[in-house]
Design goal:
The strands form two sheets. This protein has a seven-stranded parallel β-sheet. A five-stranded parallel β-sheet has the order 2-1-3-4-5, with helices on one face. Helix 1 packs across helix 10 and helix 3 packs across helix 5. It is α/β, with parallel strands linked by helices. The structure holds NADPH dihydro-nicotinamide-adenine-dinucleotide phosphate and oxalic acid. NADPH dihydro-nicotinamide-adenine-dinucleotide phosphate binds next to helix 5 and strand 7.
Length: about 300
């Protein structure tokens, strides 16, 4: 069994080679920099592979995403046909995402940006508090992350609404779906959290029209992908006052350019795509399990549907 590791923009591929060798000594690991005979390569472990490269391997049996998202794979319009693609699904990854979402929902709900600004000016002034039961958090995307965040936000007493592609019935959550469900979902949302996968249908979804459909004074948390957001539309909505603030973890270009207005915008909180980082040990475990499954002809864990793109 020969596995090729193609990783760019994150940890070193050499580190992954060492780890994978420890977990599966029977597997031969090649690095993208020196793939050797292309016919040998049966599996590819990838993060942001260059479009066009994967189809060069004629005997590829599966492609494993090193993250939860697979947009970095499906952006390649020339993938080898019929080769299954899997992604990472992990309780620990989900818990970290929920921590980030809850942290920022509470920060907005309890007006921390306002109190931080007051502290800088040595201003001692309290403001009225809204109860969680009077605040609706709307989750765009009710998959693994969306459902976990929704359950935890419910425990804190927030009103929680969710929007997904297909209909859902989740206890205590106001579920909306499809194009016709988007407007009523937005109209009731005070804090909007984007947890959608990036697909042709969700690219650019966070635009002027969507932001204008939120109630005056709503806030945005984008922890999915930067390409969901039309940056200029958000800046206009913040400057015009319709949107009160935004927390952005993901960006149209990463790393975010030093001169991008988001860095210094007083109503924007920037974090460097760290909302939830995959634990490499778990990824290796899932990859090894999937290698064994594939060799045994058993169904793969967390296989995605290329037609849906997630
Ligand atoms: P899932 O695939 O489990 O869930 C996706 C959700 O989005 C589903 O509810 C799905 O609907 C919904 N959806 C997809 N397309 C549409 C559409 N066109 N209209 C309406 N709803 C749609 O994904 P996860 O929750 O595991 O992950 C979400 C994303 O988070 C990842 O794709 C990745 O981009 C991002 N991410 C960000 C990280 C960070 O650190 N910032 C870390 C890891 C991931 P349905 O349920 O009907 O299928
Ligand atoms: C992922 C990510 O998709 O880190 O796993 O964004």
């Amino acid at each position: 069994m020969t596995v090729l590791i193609f990783r760019s923009g994150r940890d070193s591929t050499e580190w992954w080679r060492t780890q994978l060798r420890e977990e599966a000594p029977d597997v031969e690991v090649r690095l993208w920099e020196e793939p050797g005979r292309i016919e040998d390569i049966e599996y590819a472990l990838v993060w942001n592979p260059e479009p066009g490269v994967l189809k060069r391997f004629p005997n590829l049996k599966a492609i494993f995403s090193l993250g939860a998202g697979v947009d970095h794979i499906f952006v390649d319009r020339d993938l080898p046909p019929g080769v299954p693609v899997t992604r990472v699904v992990d309780d620990n990854l989900t818990a970290r995402m929920t921590e980030f979402v809850v942290l920022h929902v509470l920060r907005i709900h309890r007006q921390l940006p306002l109190y931080e600004a007051q502290q800088r000016e040595a201003v001692w002034r309290g403001h009225p508090q809204t109860a969680t039961a009077e605040r609706t958090v709307g989750l765009l995307g009710m998959g693994v992350f969306g459902q976990d965040a929704a359950a935890k936000l419910r425990l804190l007493g927030f009103v929680v609404a969710g929007w997904s592609r297909t209909a859902k019935d989740l206890p205590g959550i106001a579920c909306h779906h499809g194009a016709e469900g988007l407007s009523p979902f937005l109209a009731r949302t005070n804090i909007l959290v984007c947890l959608l996968p990036l697909t042709p249908l969700t690219e650019g979804i966070l635009d002027a029209g969507l932001l204008a459909s939120l109630p005056e004074g709503a806030s945005l948390i984008n922890v999915a992908r930067g390409q969901h957001l039309v940056d200029a539309d958000l800046i206009a909505a913040l400057d015009g006052g319709h949107i009160a603030g935004a927390v952005l973890d993901v960006f149209n270009g990463e790393p975010l350019a030093a001169d991008h207005p988001f860095w210094r915008h007083p109503k924007v909180t920037v974090t460097p795509h760290i909302a939830s980082l995959s634990d490499p040990r778990t990824i290796i475990e899932q990859v090894v399990e999937n290698l064994r499954r594939c060799e045994a002809g058993r169904p793969l864990l967390h296989q995605v549907d290329p037609a849906r793109g997630y």
